[in-house]
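Severity: low
Component: inverse-folding endpoint
Summary: output formatting inconsistent between runs
Steps to reproduce: submit the following structure tokens with default settings.
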């Protein structure tokens, strides 16, 4: 079959050259809708702490490394400065380790990524199309659904959250999704990982059947407290990441993974102002983020 016969319906929605996908749904109205949810002015960080050699990390990615370039030991050994001392450090980390946002260049199928852009645009120098530097700041309304709360279906890591379970949970919040919103899903995996009940080998998450509905609601991104947003490993041995392909590649919807939703879920709030600022890493296919919910 030709590329045209395999062409997803969302390709071209924002023009043939588009590299931002569903982020085109962000608007001043979406930001103001998020701001309108703020009642207390309280900020809750949603990132997993960055600590050398620790934290959940998937696949072949390397744990964060943290090096001190200048420290107190240097001065104890005789180093002197002109009137002051200082410390300096650096980090080496995977852009897809700990809490992070996937770029649209992160995945492809049949050698085509979002909007039909060729996978040839991703080289050893980075991505020339659909890279994380195309994203910019995200300020919008966030909607949280807690599938792992009391009586929730996501109480173990063999569970794939069905479309019926997701739509029921969203309806239960009383929030009606609008174009430009962000959806956050608590699967319970991160809490189970911290308690030693779960590993990076298996995690609860969304079933791929949720993708079309997510797009129809106008969401710009989906975040979750697990390794990949979708349930894993995939139940289909021939398709390792079906929700990634369907949301990122076919529909231009970004995924945010390993989001710490415990403190936010404990507030009982379902809607809030969500602020995310990925690093403007030119050519990057992902970025660490420190998302913030403002209540």
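Observed output (run 2 of 3):
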């Amino acid at each position: 079959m030709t590329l045209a016969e395999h062409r997803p319906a969302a390709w071209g929605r924002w023009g043939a050259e588009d590299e931002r996908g569903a982020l085109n749904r962000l608007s001043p109205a979406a930001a103001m809708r998020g701001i309108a949810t703020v009642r207390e002015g309280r900020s809750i960080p949603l990132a997993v702490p960055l600590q050398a050699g620790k934290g959940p990390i998937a696949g072949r990615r390397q744990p964060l490394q943290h090096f001190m370039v200048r420290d107190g030991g240097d001065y104890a050994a005789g180093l002197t400065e002109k009137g002051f001392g200082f410390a300096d450090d650096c980090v080496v980390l995977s852009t897809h380790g700990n809490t992070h946002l996937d770029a649209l260049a992160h995945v492809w199928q049949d050698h085509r990524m979002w909007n039909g852009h060729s996978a040839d645009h991703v080289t050893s120098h980075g991505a020339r199309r659909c890279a994380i530097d195309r994203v910019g700041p995200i300020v919008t309304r966030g909607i949280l659904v807690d599938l792992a709360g009391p009586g929730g279906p996501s109480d173990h890591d063999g569970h794939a959250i069905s479309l019926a379970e997701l739509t029921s949970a969203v309806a239960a919040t009383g929030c009606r999704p609008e174009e430009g919103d962000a959806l956050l899903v608590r699967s319970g995996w991160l809490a189970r990982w911290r308690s030693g009940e779960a590993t990076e080998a298996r995690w609860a998450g969304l079933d791929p059947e949720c993708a079309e509905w997510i797009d129809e609601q106008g969401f710009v991104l989906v975040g979750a407290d697990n390794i990949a947003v979708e349930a894993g490993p995939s139940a289909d041995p021939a398709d390792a990441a079906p929700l990634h392909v369907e949301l990122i590649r076919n529909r231009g919807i970004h995924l945010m993974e390993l989001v710490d939703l415990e403190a936010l879920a404990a507030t009982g709030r379902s809607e809030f102002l969500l602020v995310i600022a990925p690093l403007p890493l030119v050519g990057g296919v992902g970025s660490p983020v420190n998302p913030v919910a403002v209540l």
